[in-house]
Amino acid sequence: MYWLEKNRVRELVEKLSREYAVFGPRYDEVSEEVIFDRLADPGQLNLQAPISYNPPKYILFPHYEEILKYTYDRKSKQVAIEKFSKIQPKALVGIRSCDLTGILCLDRFFLGQEFVDEFYLEHRKKLFLISSTCVRPFPQCFCVCTDSGPAAREGFDLDLTFTGEGYLVLAGSRKGQKLVDELKLEPAGKEASSLRKKIIGESISSFDKFALENKAWISRATNRLTTGFVKPEVWEYIGNQCFECGACSFVCPTCSCFNVEDVNRIPQTDRVRTWDSCSFEGYTKMAGDHNPRKPVEDRRNKRFFCKLSYSQSKKYLRPGCVGCGRCARVCPGDIGLPNVVTYIRREITGEEDR
Amino acid sequence: MNNQLLPIVTVPEVATVVEIRDEIPEVKTFFFTFDRPEIEEAFRIRSGQFIMCTVFGAGEFAVSLPFSPENDRKHISVRKVGKVTAALHALEPGDKIGIRGPFGNGFPFEEIKGKNVVYVAGGIGLIPLRSSIVHVLQHRQEFGRVILVYGARSSRDLMYKESIREWKATSGFETYFTIDRPEPGWSGEVGFVNQLVARIDLPVEHTVAFVCGPPVMFNSVIKELKIKGIKEQNIYSTLERHMKCGIGKCQHCAIGRTLVCVDGPVYTYRQIKTLGEQI
């Protein structure tokens, strides 16, 4: 473990920005929300800011991405198809453990199944990831229930833990070690390991004090969802609450459904993929208007099935929910994942109120 | 299989439409060959698989493959039903299309050798079954009884009339045809496919059934087959869903815990029952 002084973070970012486009948590001037965004200046990085409004998912899985372009001249019958290749190296600084876990889920889903997604792979290969331990939770957090925080265990190039005076630095890859060497970071000393452990322990024990919005009975909910014992009335209730806005999918670090469309621009056509959400009615609609999933509750339970069922967890090698609590924050119908888990819990225990 | 090509995953391979045939109203068959000789040479499929077909300038759609894995011309049969298929129907011989695939699991072939095979199709449900029918007939002596029960709304809605003529000439291939309402000049059966299935003598032991057609037909046929005693795990069908990627990433084709593009499109009825969704 190494030691990075507080005032050297800027140097770290500057060093990265020579090779990478650097992204990190910063305050948005207009909305005053914390967003995970491109840093125009290293000084914008705010590692002490609360959890960002959006996860960094969009950086490696963009909202709107051109994947192919082609031209077809019907007269001469000439076709030219080309892959888009404008993917740049990017460094993500200050990723919270939940969001890093989200990226690992996406890795396993896009790269670890029967087929490899070439576009995701291209993004992923060029990423530099610096995670940051959450020294205290926020009201919506429940990563301790989903085993994805408050500190990262794997998948980072560098990991930072703030002690008050500076950062304990873990190198998780050769790339990370190289950066440590270039910055000539000093070893953090014998006590560093136990200090990091202590900070994480304090963070976990402060969940009862700070993380008051959500508690999630993940393992029991997983059991119920997998065995199909959640009563239709529960899904109907959840369905009735759903506005079909798709916000939950868009702020979720692991939601990765996309649509593909060919967009005509003269003279070429671009094949683009865009984020999609299973809550939209048109999601499963086939040509000829046959739609196998109609009622909204039928679509809603698919999302929670995807997050928590055992069969889907096999693809991620963990639950699909990482406990960031963003869906609960954005949902206008109050059916973020923690609430859904609560409804399932109530059904099991017969509780009347929360 | 040597020199087997891996599926075309990302960038479509360009193919030329060499012939277009009118099948039934709104359905045309498009014969195609790949422009690159090495792809044309190496492209292999299993019965029951599907491809993603690009109509340049319009988009891409998933379509089942009706040709046999052996000695058959490459083609797709497509009903004009939406934006992209309408653009496909507007093509002429010589036009180019893009192909990705083949994707999906396909119908069992080696596993069912020696068994009786019953095909039950309704309307354009014959399209995905055609590949398996032709393949089984090419290996006729390796199977038991082979039976086709095929129904359509009217005689002009029966697919693949030319192929059917050939199949009828194959010895040991039992065929039954039905249309919904009587028609002058029609000598086959009249009524729905499930009623015909109920009437005819079908083998039950050592038998697999392949069923494909509209949901109403599918459910009523399954009922009859089960009454006859054919086991749920021996009844196969192929499902269709809205698909965008074909490789298990976009998730549009999720049914229950499975994705039709990689876990399907061929399922046994026993599997379909546990998926917990409408067909």
List the helices and strands and how they pair.
The complex is a heterodimer of chains A (354) and B (279).
Chain A: E1 2-5, H1 9-17, E2 21-27, E3 34-38, H2 57-60, E4 64-73, E5 78-83, E6 90-96, H3 97-111, H4 118-125, E7 127-132, H5 143-146, E8 158-162, E9 166-171, H6 174-182, E10 186-187, H7 192-205, H8 207-210, H9 218-227, H10 232-241, H11 247-251, E11 258-264, E12 269-275, H12 296-308, H13 310-316, H14 326-330, H15 337-349
Parallel strand pairs in A: 2-6, 6-7, 7-8
Antiparallel strand pairs in A: 1-9, 1-10, 2-3, 4-5, 4-12, 8-9, 11-12
Chain B: E1 8-24, E2 27-34, H1 37-42, E3 50-55, E4 59-64, E5 75-79, H2 83-89, E6 96-103, E7 116-122, H3 126-138, E8 146-152, H4 161-169, E9 173-179, E10 189-190, H5 193-199, E11 207-212, H6 215-228, E12 235-238, E13 254-255, E14 258-259, H7 260-263, E15 266-268, H8 269-275
Parallel strand pairs in B: 7-8, 7-11, 8-9, 9-10, 11-12
Antiparallel strand pairs in B: 1-2, 1-6, 2-5, 3-4, 3-6, 12-15, 13-14
